[in-house]
Amino acid sequence: xxxxxxxxxxxxxxxxxxxxxxxxxxxxxxxxxxxxxxxxxxxxxxxxxxxxxxxxxxxxxxxxxxxxxxxxxxxxxxxxxxxxxxxxxxxxxxxxxxxxxxxxxxxxxxxxxxxxxxxxxxxxxxxxxxxxxxxxxxxxxxxxxxxxxxxxxxxxxxxxxxxxxxxxxxxxxxxxxxxx
Length: 180
Known about the structure:
By secondary structure, the chain is of the alpha/beta class. It contains 7 helices and 6 strands.
């Protein structure tokens, strides 16, 4: 179930996620405070992908990654497939402490997901029912992020949403450099 001793308070970083927030997130994960759901979004494809991958690496120890870090291609993974991976991850095979299902470049959280909102039903049902303790879903949201979707609302309530907008113009670059 989503509620547990290691739950991290919901956090939505707006408009962009600062480096100090990422440092605090990394520290919280190291301390065992792992949220059931992380959504990493924004137009900065490099940072979005880098941080989404790192979250999985931060959660799953290197010695367990082969069996406990499942990477799915968002272009081909269906909502039913993602939901099935979440369910199989809750079975606790191989004695691993944490399991992460990472969906790379996932187009399902935009305003017009492939297959329509009805196609999301299996995944929405799985997330609404609760992601079991020890399993975490990390979604790298490509193709937009609609905060009105059920998954986005659950992420805002029970998980972590990280945003990485493109850095544009002189002021944007200055803010980007100062933040680091």
